[in-house]
Amino acid sequence: MLSTFTRNDWLLLIGFAIIILVLPWALQPIGAAYPDLLQKIAIFGIFAIGFNILFGLTGYLSFGHAAFIGIGSYVSVWSFKLLTMNVLPAVILSVGMAAVFAFLIGYVSLRRSGIYFSILTLAFAQMSYNLAYSVLTPITNGETGLQVRAIRDSAAVSLRDGDVRLIDQAMGIQEIGVPITNFFGMKMSGYPGFYFCAVLLIICFFIAMCITKSNFGMMLKAIKSNQNRLNYTGIHTRPYLISAFVISGMYAGLAGSLLAVTDPIAGAERMQWTASGEVVLMTILGGAGTLVGPVLGAGLIKYAEQKVSSWNEGILHQAFSGLPDGLQNFFVEFFSFFVGEGWHLTLGFLFMVIVIFLPGGLMEGARRIASIFRKQRTDKADEANAVGQPAE
Amino acid sequence: MSVAENIRDDEDDRGFKSGIPDKVLHIDDVHKSFAGLHALSDVDLDVRKGETHAIIGPNGAGKSTLLNVCVGRLKPDRGAVIFDGDTLTGKSPHEINQLGVARVFQTPEVFLDLTVLENVMVPALSKRDGHFKLNPFKSFAGEKAIRQEAIDVIHSVGLHAQLNAPATSMSRGDKRRLELAMGLIQHPKLLLLDEPTAGMARHDTNATIDLLKKIKEGGMTKVIIEHDMHVVFSLADRISVLAGGRIIAQGTPDQIKNDPRVKEAYLGEEQV
Ligand SMILES: Nc1ncnc2c1ncn2[C@@H]1O[C@H](COP(=O)(O)OP(=O)(O)O)[C@@H](O)[C@H]1O
Ligand SMILES: [Mg+2]
């Protein structure tokens, strides 16, 4: 599998790793270099890479992947509450549980294709969301969300309000104040938290590269290209699809887990359909089927979300202060629909523009620009040749 | 391993020693109708091991429908298709392929987003690994061998210049050749070819005939649907004539050439 990696592939991997690791410096000029945002970019990058393994390679559009985010978050918080504040078991258990659920949901949903598949996944995710708010409140703590607490004094205290942390207790780890997630002692908030997510993002990127380059990945691309023909070629497409679904579900589970690692609370809103839709936007915005595109899309959307939703009328007035009063008020009124709470409107608008003018996403845009430059260069080279070589 | 060698290997274990030619494919009393239109009625057909069996007949005679029944795309209303002791009727397309039946489609159905090489690698891997394989740690040597084999087959159909080109950029004639390569790479026990030369220029048609002749020497059993009588008479060992969903004649090329019913139903209109 690694044997199929070309030199360019290794360069891509190394370049990607470097860019991710220097993000805290690289993003300073645009005011995005704070841990909270950086963590989100890395986490949603993982989510989008995984989503792209299903959607980008096989063409199957899941509208329910946020369910696995939720599962990952809940499992992680439970791991913090019951076992240890060390994030390693939390991450492993979350990914494992997401795999189990992805298998079940995928097994059923993949009986259908196209829009019916999408709707089935959406239905499953909404079911999970509603269950988290109703029947499952003992596990999810409903609207309040599941939180890490201090270790309880007696078994009379419910698990929601007091934790046990069996492993930490057995190891005699003392807790003072609010328990904090850690990776063998290293605190998982702030920049260490970002670097933990960043390293996992790079590993996830590498795995996605391996999948894309492998025979397995080729079969997934063949499914997107012509699933029917594949059957007549002796390939049973369903196991391939289920595997891709499970893998992408595990990526989502990891992302959910990391959300809990960096901020140990889990709420049902993470499973809402808007969250499922968001990852679709990220993938398409960046470029479905490309390796880098989904991460780019995730980073951009998370950045824009933080910025645009923090803008308010005051900032708009400043931005348009050069205009005459009447015009200024008009512009401020108009654009205030798109900022702050109206951020989703901006997102929808951006999405429409991309899908209409650049269906391949930003990566396609980059490719187009690159090809224009390349063409100019070869034109110049041709001219040079024409001058250099006299006509026959 | 070349295409021809592999087929010779197969041949030895169930040879013609008994003197009675083996039936590889047995189509037994197959009926198929589409909303009242009888596309196939009472179709009985035997294909012997190693032969090239041509099915001819006018447009709309039911030839493609017959192949569709064989590969599991269509379920017959009645009757059965038996291949090498296995009943194909009711099996899914991938199971039928895994039993050793490959089909070359009339309208090329290649993987447009994949390269020529990848298009051939897919059936090659399906043959080697079965209907599903998750392959996280595949050995380099094995990969190299199968890749080389795919390249050889692509060479044999004359597409080596486009090895890494995406299939979507190919001409229709080239897509047909790619279809053929996708069938050949699997070394199927039975290869079903649906008008492999339709729409090809004379030159390409002749090249395809030569290629199919070469495989014939290898002993692969083939069923070929063909419109071009030149192709049929240069390749076929036996011919079945299908008209209006029924087999109206069966025999050697000479017998068919001189059969008055066939002339009336088919050859007359084609001016052979
Ligand atoms: N899926 C289908 N649905 C309805 N009618 C069909 C279908 N497939 C084939 N037919 C009809 O069955 C008849 C035989 O078609 P076909 O097998 O494609 O003929 P041939 O390959 O001999 O030209 C034609 O009249 C065709 O219109
Ligand atoms: Mg036909």
Helix content of chain A: 55-70%
Low-confidence residue ranges of chain A: 388-392
SS elements, strand count of chain A: 4
Strand fraction band of chain A? Answer: under 5%
Bound molecules: adenosine-5'-diphosphate, magnesium ion
Structural class computed from helices and strand pairing of chain A = mainly alpha
Task: Walk me through what this model shows.
The complex is a heterodimer of chains A (392) and B (272). By secondary structure, chain A is an all-alpha fold. Chain A folds into two domains: 2-289, no CATH class; 307-384, no CATH class. Chain A has helices at residues 7-21, 23-26, 35-58, 66-82, 87-109, 114-133, 137-140, 166-170, 190-213, 215-232, 237-262, 273-286, 293-308, 313-319, 325-336, 343-357, 361-388; strands spanning 146-147, 182-183, 186-187, 265-266. Chain A has a two-stranded antiparallel sheet. In chain A, strands 2-3 form a two-stranded antiparallel sheet. With 272 residues, chain B is α/β, with parallel strands linked by helices. Helix content of chain B is 40%, strand content 23%. Chain B has ten helices and ten strands. Chain B has helices at 3-13, 63-70, 93-98, 116-129, 140-156, 172-184, 202-218, 229-235, 253-257, 260-270; strands at residues 23-34, 37-48, 52-56, 78-83, 86-87, 101-104, 190-194, 221-225, 238-243, 246-251. In chain B, strands 6-7-8-3-9-10 form a six-stranded mixed beta sheet, sandwiched between helices. The model of chain B is unreliable at 1-19 (pLDDT under 50). The chains are: A mainly alpha (392), B alpha/beta (272). Chain A binds chain B through residues 1, 3-4, 210, 214-216, 218-219, 221-222, 224-226, 228-237, 239-240, 243, and chain B through 71, 73, 92-94, 97-98, 103, 105, 109-114, 118, 121-123, 125-127, 129-138, 140, 143, 182, 186. The structure holds adenosine-5'-diphosphate and magnesium ion (MG). Adenosine-5'-diphosphate (ADP) binds at residues 34, 37, 39, 57, 59-65 of chain B.
